[in-house]
Amino acid sequence: TQSTVIAPSILSADFARLGEEVDNVLKAGADWVHFDVMDNHYVPNLTIGPMVCEALRKHGVTAPIDVHLMVEPVDRIVPDFAKAGATTISFHPEASAHVHRTIQLIKSLGCKAGLVLNPGTPLEVLDWVLDDLDMVLLMSVNPGFGGQSFIPSALEKLRRVRERIDRSGRAIRLEIDGGVKADNIGEIAAAGADTFVAGSAIFNAPDYADTIGRMKAAVAA
Ligand code: DX5
Ligand code: ZN
């Protein structure tokens, strides 16, 4: 089993003070920085790109940067994120014409590769690529916005992906993204997640360390 990772989504951070916000969540106990990239095409919102990732590295961020691409097409932007200092690059199979090729591209550039499943995406997309992945990211909301509610069917989906990962015998992370809070993270962990994205639950709270601490305690319980 993998160590627990809390990955605050900077989508809910104060973008006018982004460097400081990232420093603060990392000081407060965050393990990774979750970096949501939206293109107003694959999803109905527009956020940040490789230049902002590079700026965080130049600012001195050494923690893993977990890039979640909600863009179409995928392949064109992957090398830019690898160059900008991304650690993991995850993408949606619906947005890539050649899922296997995109995974190999990400890994050939020295990054870890993740595949993202929307709430309505069947698990079969994992069938012929699971062994090539470093991470499976299950969406527990439809992508595009922070602050949405956790979709309950994601718990059963987590259990099924956990079984597949265990059967593979590989060290593949299982990340959950959307509506994760201190009061539901315990059951989400019990369903099999080891890597937890949380945006609004952390950045909208007054005390980042307290919130992250309560999340880690609930996962460990
Ligand atoms: C949604 C993004 C999420 C989002 C999570 O498309 O992928 O990472 O920021 O935000 P919360 O934790 O507020 O649901
Ligand atoms: Zn995300």
Characterization of the model:
- With 221 residues, the protein is an alpha/beta fold.
- It has one domain (5-220): Alpha-Beta Barrel (TIM Barrel), CATH 3.20.20.
- 34% of the residues lie in helices and 18% in strands.
- The protein is built from 8 helices and 8 strands, in the order βαβαβαβαββαβαβαα.
- The protein has an 8-stranded parallel beta sheet.
- β2, α2 and β3 form a beta-alpha-beta unit.
- α2 (50-59) packs parallel to α3.
- It is globular.
- The two termini are 16 Å apart.
- D-xylitol-5-phosphate binds at residues 9, 11-12, 34, 36, 68, 141, 143-144, 146-148, 177-180, 197-201.
Write the layout of secondary structure elements.
Blueprint: E1 5-8, H1 18-27, E2 33-38, H2 50-59, E3 65-70, H3 78-84, E4 88-91, H4 99-108, E5 112-117, E6 135-139, H5 154-168, E7 173-177, H6 185-190, E8 195-198, H7 200-203, H8 208-220
Parallel strand pairs: 1-8, 2-3, 3-4, 4-5, 5-6, 6-7, 7-8
Helix pairs in contact: 2-3
Bound molecules: D-xylitol-5-phosphate (DX5) and zinc ion.
The site of zinc ion has 6 residues, from β2.
